[in-house]
Amino acid sequence: MTEAxxxxxxxxxxxxxxxxxxxxxxxxxxxxxxxxxxxxxKLGITAxxxxxxxxxxxxxxxxxxxDICADMASALYADLAAEPSGHVGCxxxxxxxxxxxxxxxxxxxxxxxxxxxxxxLGADQFGSVFLQLAGRLIASNLVAxxxxxxxxxxxxxxxxxxxxVLMDAVSVHGxxxxxxxxxxxxxxxxxxxxxxxxxxxALEVFGRFPFTVSNPEPMFxxxxxxxxxxxxxxxxxxxxx
Amino acid sequence: MTEAxxxxxxxxxxxxxxxxxxxxxxxxxxxxxxxxxxxxxKLGITAxxxxxxxxxxxxxxxxxxxDICADMASALYADLAAEPSGHVGCxxxxxxxxxxxxxxxxxxxxxxxxxxxxxxLGADQFGSVFLQLAGRLIASNLVAxxxxxxxxxxxxxxxxxxxxVLMDAVSVHGxxxxxxxxxxxxxxxxxxxxxxxxxxxALEVFGRFPFTVSNPEPMFxxxxxxxxxxxxxxxxxxxxx
DNA sequence: GAACTCTTGTAAACACCGTTCACTGAAACC
DNA sequence: GGTTTCAGTGAACGGTGTTTACAAGAGTTC
Lengths: 241, 241
Fold this sequence. Notes:
Two copies of one chain form a homodimer. By secondary structure, chain A is mainly α. Chain A has helices at residues 6-29, 36-43, 57-81, 88-105, 107-114, 123-139, 156-172, 184-206, 216-231, 235-238. The first copy, chain A, is globular. Chain B binds a DNA duplex through residues 5-7, 10-11, 14, 35-38, 45-49, 51-53, 56-57. Chains A, B: Keywords: DNA-binding, Transcription, Transcription regulation. Chains A, B: Residues 35-54 bind DNA. Chains A, B: This is TetR/AcrR family transcriptional regulator.
């Protein structure tokens, strides 16, 4: 079973511990606490040893971002699986709520991944859940058929590229979808929804609402209702919860 | 005229230079480059001297945030003043576009102020432009009269507090507004608009759209159109530009 | 089993960081 | 003129990322 040599196993184990220590430091004390020396201290080794595993502190932080994205995707998939009804609307709602819940429970991770002006996040990394769900969503007939000509023509090219990404994401999971069902108008609305979802969650995590919100959850739910209505879900469907 | 003593003048000048150097470092090389020693080097002094002006590195960063907010407010006011028409809709559009423009031109500043999980930003700091404009906006009759009962009851208390903030912000500038004109429904829509505006701008600055957007401006304009429509502006008014 | 290479770690060093502290010299005050 | 106030210095402490030379064990080859 274990084809790996003893050395490879040890190396993999150490690498796992490095990631784990880095993650713990981030969660406990924020980005600035994720220090090579602090990580090394947790493992009982010295800082230069870490250079056998990562080229630089920056590379280690990038790895940390990837790990966070993967973990978040797992969490969202789990929440999605816990949504028993087959209603796509309910599933969308569940994932959006799960995203907010995850961000509030992991503010440091959220800040690192979603609010750093660094290299563009590979779409596969964090977005696979969203992508897959968005693909199923706009493929389902529950979504109103927004006409393509609602969308400014300059956006066609970018949205068409996104369309391809979505169709690939959906087809990976076995489902194939007709080209015309997944039109640009629908895709445009998905992007608009991502703007609102991300906007609300980021504002809440960073405390940047223009006034102190004592109970942000119903405000989020309210936004979600409006979003699902705007995207074209019938009210009776979104009311299923 | 200059009542200040020579020492006070020198001190004020040095403090100005400190802020300026800190800002330059942030813009040139990002948050992590804003170092006490780097600032001191720019001024030709030593790092401990900075402790005569700020209690700590963190306090200096807070000051930097305040300066950034003030500068951004100035920029937005300038763009607002450059909007000749008296149409509130055009003014809202102008400020929103100016906010995006400012954020894209100052990504490091934007990240520091709007995407750090630190103490809540005093509303007066960055929000005065938004607040004043939002106050005028919802006071104007162009905005559809959203009924209060559209708003979940749990939000009433928070929105009422925001209502008070808005009315104060508007009345500072001489305009008084009737209580019923500025109802909770309208305020709720202002908050929703802030979510979308912030969401789009942050996603663009941080490159977190789920696909590469080759030309984000029309996407923003499109979002803005939708936002202004949703908030209740008639199309012919928002079409004035 | 001996000789060899590859890998993983160490220790020391360098330059940088925030922060503290004792000290200096000049400005301001009485 | 003597005293106080205060901006600035230099040295120091412990922290950081990173490089370098070196040791020691694991795996391989003969």
